[in-house]
């Protein structure tokens, strides 16, 4: 099930676009064999960006349907931010004033499909942007009561911990991501940003239960069908 609105405290915001950031944690880059050294990953001047439709959103407690055009479905837990404002060429120091809420989400990936499209030099949409590929937790309003630069989070499959990360380990921080995106797009209220996944990605299949947990953002769960 997709969502037509996102509640953040007393505010209701209609989702606009979904921006996703790839290769934002060094250990995840290593496990994908996509670079030669840690130094190389740190020298990237801009983040990897791809997009998904809002029809890919799945609310907590709803079922995630396995797509039929691939065979290897992977989980990728991510911290997700929702924007309440935006514009063009936002300064890094002004970026956090655009954030309405923060939560956890999943960037589901058909890894076998992604490998094939990468080989052909094609875009990633077939592997990343299918229906139900962006499960999204409930938003916690963003304020000064927690540190956006130190959010621990984890992903469990059938109660087994698969992934564990912290926003302090991002190669591109949330303010830098927002600022960069605004140099290309005019950011708008309702824009969602999936900020990248740590290492530990793995296969999920029908009847698996996926739960995401953060002591700051909460716990959210879905069942795969």
Secondary structure layout:
Elements: E1 6-8, E2 11-13, E3 18-22, H1 26-31, H2 38-42, E4 48-52, E5 57-58, E6 63-64, E7 73-75, E8 77-83, E9 99-106, E10 109-110, H3 111-120, H4 125-128, E11 134-135, E12 140-141, E13 152-157, E14 160-166, H5 174-184, E15 192-194, E16 202-203, E17 209-214, E18 218-224
Parallel strand pairs: 3-15, 5-11, 6-18
Antiparallel strand pairs: 1-2, 3-4, 7-10, 7-16, 8-9, 8-15, 9-12, 13-14, 13-17, 17-18
Protein model, in words:
- With 225 residues, the chain is of the alpha+beta class.
- It has a single domain (6-224), classed as Fumarylacetoacetase-like, C-terminal domain (Fumarylacetoacetate hydrolase, domain 2, Alpha-Beta Complex).
- It is built from 5 helices and 18 strands.
- The chain has a 6-stranded mixed beta sheet, covered by helices on one side.
